[in-house]
Sequence to fold (221 residues):
Amino acid sequence: MVNPTQVLVDQEVPVHARVQIVSTLPGPFRDHPEASRGLIDAIAGQPGFRGIHLLMQIGSRQGLLLTLWDSLHDAEAAPERTQAALGPRPFPLALDEVYKVWESRRGPASLAEATVAQLLWFDGPRSAAQAEAARRAGEERIKPALQDVPGFAGGYVLGRSQDLAMVVVQLATSTEALDRVADVVFGTALLPGEDPALLTGPDRVEVYRLDAQSLTTAPAA
Fold:
C-alpha cells in the first residue's frame, strides 16, 4: 500500500473529485500491486493532483477509483491525460462522475492506518431544502461527533450542483470502526430546528477495502 500523508483537503479550498467505478475489475489489477503503482504514478504526476484512493468492494469484484483535484478542469482532463500516459483503458467504466468536495472530515486515526472505506450514495435529484438539511447536519452535528471516534481516519462529502446528489466517503481502520461511526451518527441528537423529514437515508451503502492511496498536502485557503 502506498503510504499517504495525513492531510485531507481543507473545506474552504475549491477541490473537485472524480469517482470512477469498474463493475468487474480484471485480475491483473486486483492481484498485482505494480499495476496500481503504475496507475497512481500516472495520475499523481498530472497538473492539479491532490489525492487518490483505490478501493475494492468487499464481497464483489467492483473497483472504485476516487481522485481529488484542484480544479474542475483538472478533474475533467484526468482521463485523457491518463490515457496519454498509459494507453487506452483496458476495461469499461460503469460510472464516471465529477463532484465538488463540499466538506472534509478528520478523525483520531491517521489516513495511513485506514484499511476500509464506506460510501453512502444519495441519488439526485434532491431538493434545495434536503441539501441544506444535510449540510447543516453534516457540519454542525455529525462532523464534530466523528472527531473522537476510535478508528475513524476521515472522509469527504461530495456533491453535484446540478441535481444536488451527494456521496459521503468514510475512511476507517476496520469494519468495526465503521460500525462505531454509524453508532455515533445515528446516536447524535437532532439540533434545534432540524426536520427529520428532510434527513432521508442513503439510497445505497457500499463497503470497500482500501487497496492503495496517495495524498498531497492541501494548500492554504
